[in-house]
Amino acid sequence: MLGIGAVPSALLALMVFGMPESPRWLVMKGRLADARAVLAKTSDTPEEAVERLDQIKAAAGIPRELDGDVVVMPKTKGGQEKQVWKELIFSPTPAMRRILLAALGIHFFQQATGSDSVVLYSPRVFQSAGITGRRPLLLTSTAGMLACLIGLGTGLTVVGRHPDAKVPWAIGLCIVSILAYVSFFSIGLGPLTSVYTSEVFPLRVRALGFALGASCNRVTSAAVSMSFLSLSKAITIGGSFFLYAGIAAIGWIFFFTFIPETRGLPLEEIGKLFGMTDTAVEAQDTATKDKAKVGEMN
Asked: Are 43 and 180 members of one domain?
């Protein structure tokens, strides 16, 4: 089961072999023809590909009029890697130092501001604030996401119907809906999914049950991510979010009718909320003990 987490990484590693080299790296190696071919595939128009190649050549110090398939790049003294370390770390220019500081700063503050703590430990934060129920947070979160998806679908539909004219209120509605959606997701459905899954399964099947839930999560995520562009082309991007809103409505009904509150219950008692009787629990516990005894005898 622990090896399941390696499957996406293995697939990604295999897919990397099919990825083209960066056109900037190709230009740095003097392989202009290969860079031109990559840009032709990734640019919207041939003119854009030519413009981007000229920009990359200028940044690499290659004259614009030099347009062969392969050019000889001057070798830097001491090797390229040493030159990069010197330019970036040991003796950077003021501009390079500012660029490095900006990059390190944005990464530092992304984490130091407590983003992971807010998302991952929001149930504990709400508990400290006196909000201890799983179910109310889940229902509130899903209802808020539903409203935001409707707002986002409405805004995008209006914008799509007026491609030549800006509609300020529709653009504002899209921005507010996205920000509110992330907020509602972070207070409930985001962190509570793993918390709830780790609570509801009996101890003897908890590891496998959690693995199955995580697998369902990843498969659904992949399906949604890979189908979004095709879906938006088929029913428009606004229609896609209306579809997600419909799914969110079904999810709210599912949570309301099927998901019981687990607040204040020990893990051993949660199974009863789903109809697991004491007799069933005792029978399964007895079977587990018998298997353990057989294993000891062997």
From this structure: no
